[in-house]
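My current task is to audit a protein record that another person submitted. Alongside the sequence sits a line of tokens, each denoting a local backbone shape. Where you disagree with what is written, explain briefly why. This is what I was given:
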Amino acid sequence: MDQRQQARIDLAAILRWSARLGLNEGVDNHFSVLVPGTEDRFIINPHRRHWRDMRASDLVEVDGDGNLVVGDEPPEATAFFIHWRVHTQCGHAKAILHAHMPYATALTITVDRALDPTASQNAMRYIDRIAVDREWGTWTVNASGTTRNE
């Protein structure tokens, strides 16, 4: 088996395993790998396909201009631009895993323990639909664990 096919198999396996672990957010996260032996092409999951269903044959290959070289549907445009920049600016980055894990996303969209719906496209549905009681106590998280402060 050649290195290109092995890279496709490995990338599909990583996507499927990551879905199993709940590390994806719908279909809008992307993993990519530089095509072995090249510096101007990469393999990435196509737009609108869920990770849990990904097969090596589903993955697409694009060139540095975003042109589809192998596959039937290009990646989502922002995925191309993010991944291509990292691949070209960080020569050591042979694989890029960009995920929006649910718990990490939840933590990053809080401000003073209040959901900031403008911080995440998936949280936009909550604009003007949430209420926050800022007087109800606070929590401290440290190496010893989580403590409620009364």
Remarks:
- The chain has a mean pLDDT of 79.
- The radius of gyration is 19 Å.
- Residues 118 and 124 are 6 Å apart (CA to CA).
- The longest helix spans residues 3-20.
